[in-house]
Amino acid sequence: MHDLEKIFQQKIETEVKIEPKDWMPDAYRKTNIRQVSQHAHSEIVGMLPEGAWISRAPSLKRKSILIAKVQDEAGHGLYLYSACETLGITREETINDLHSGKAKYSSIFNYPTLTWADIGAIGWLVDGAAIMNQVMLTRTSYGPYARAMVRICKEESFHQRQGFEILLVLSKGTNEQKAMCQDAINRWWWPSLMMFGPHDSESTNSEQSMKWKIKRKTNDELRQNFVDMCAEQVKVLGMKIPDDKLKWNEEKMHYDFGEINWDEFWNVVKGNGPCNKERLDARRKAWDGGEWVREAAAAFSEKRKSKPQAA
Amino acid sequence: MKNYLKKFYYGDIPEDKAGGNIVSSESKSDWPLWEVFIRSKQGLDHKHVGSLHAADAQMAIENARDAYTRRMEGVSIWVVESKYIHASNPEEAGELFEPAVDKIYRHPTFYDLPDEVNQM
């Protein structure tokens, strides 16, 4: 092993963060670029399903909250894109990879938001699952990624709480509202469990990522934590989690739960989910439509530079 | 022996990607990168919080407000184009900071004083 690699590995083992200027193995750099950019794309694409309800939010209060939340997602995307750039890839390359379909984003955002209750379910389940992952990542070994995560986690807790509150209000409403609440939970539960990725035994990226302390808990560990948390919280709503096999296991001190439909999981990852095409089209359209703004701003800046101290 | 090491980065920013210093023919719309520093309240230092792209300083400040102070985290913002940040090289950190290593007498705890002398 090369001495630089030894120094690197030693830092990882002694919990010293890796910073952008430090030497790092190329594979570590690439893994981080892949993971951080995927995370950034998820934040940005994640604005779309919720954004669809801004104009239809049931009250001015809910509308203001939803706008703030969606704006937060944009901010989170930005923190992560910035962290990603420190690894030596430009913003434009990163975004091109999303638009070409080379880079992935969280598959959860390829499901449609059919009713207002979906906004609640997204906050509770989707943001809840994301927080599990993100809390772990505040201790990830790459400094800029960890710092972005700290910032994001601080803001994310409002997202989950507002979602749960939406469901709580619906759960105390009319029969129709209750049914709407249960229906949203039914549709979002399994895709939320899929957010943690394949089983540890199947995941090709997990093992090395654990060694490098990019990830600090495995997919299955995080998923179990999530199930344990939701199985309790759903009682407060008086709703049901759509899984017959969900049952407290006294011996393991965890909930047992049913198997994910992995065919569906891989199908959506590969681009065949209900909204994959729609989401990417929306992102491309936004990027292309914004081109004249980017160019105009750059031209304006050039013009101002060329005649300093004028006015 | 270490000649394959070609990646030296300034601050958090890859030097060759840091914005206006390299003008590529087709990236006219690629705004330069800025580092953002926020003073969280009067009396405290500005602290580095992250970076963003903007066409000019004014836009950088406005974007920084939206990105980094959505919850009143700041009362003042500094932005500086990333290419103007110069940073020490981590590989030379040993030599660079060596002069301070053996001067423990610069710390108050070096001096053993009787308990009667309190608050010194």
Description of the structure:
The complex is a heterodimer of chains A (311) and B (120). Chain A is mostly helical. Chain A is built from 13 helices and 2 strands. Chain A has helices spanning 3-13, 26-45, 47-51, 60-85, 91-100, 116-137, 143-171, 175-194, 206-211, 219-237, 262-272, 276-289, 291-306, and strands at 247-249, 254-256. In chain A, a hairpin with a 4-residue loop joins strand 1 (247-249) and strand 2 (254-256). In chain A, helix 6 runs parallel beside helix 8 (175-194). The radius of gyration of chain A is 21 Å and the shape is globular. The N and C termini of chain A lie far apart (62 Å). Chain B is an alpha+beta fold. Chain B contains 2 helices and 5 strands. Chain B has helices at residues 57-68, 93-101; strands spanning 9-10, 13-14, 33-39, 46-53, 76-81. Chain B has a 3-stranded antiparallel sheet with strand order 4-3-5, with helices on one face. Chain B is flat, with a radius of gyration of 21 Å. The A-B interface holds A 4, 19-23, 68, 71-72, 75, 78-79, 82, 85-92, 144, 147-148, 151, 155, 291, 294-295, 297-298, 300-301, 304 and B 2, 5, 7-14, 17, 27-31, 33, 49-53, 55-56, 59, 66-68, 70-71, 87, 89-91.
Q: Unreliable stretches of chain A, pLDDT < 50, 5 or more residues?
A: none
Number of strand elements of chain B: 5
Fraction of residues in β-strands of chain B: 15-25%
Mass-distribution shape of chain B: flat
Q: Tell me the fraction of residues in β-strands of chain A, as a range.
A: under 5%
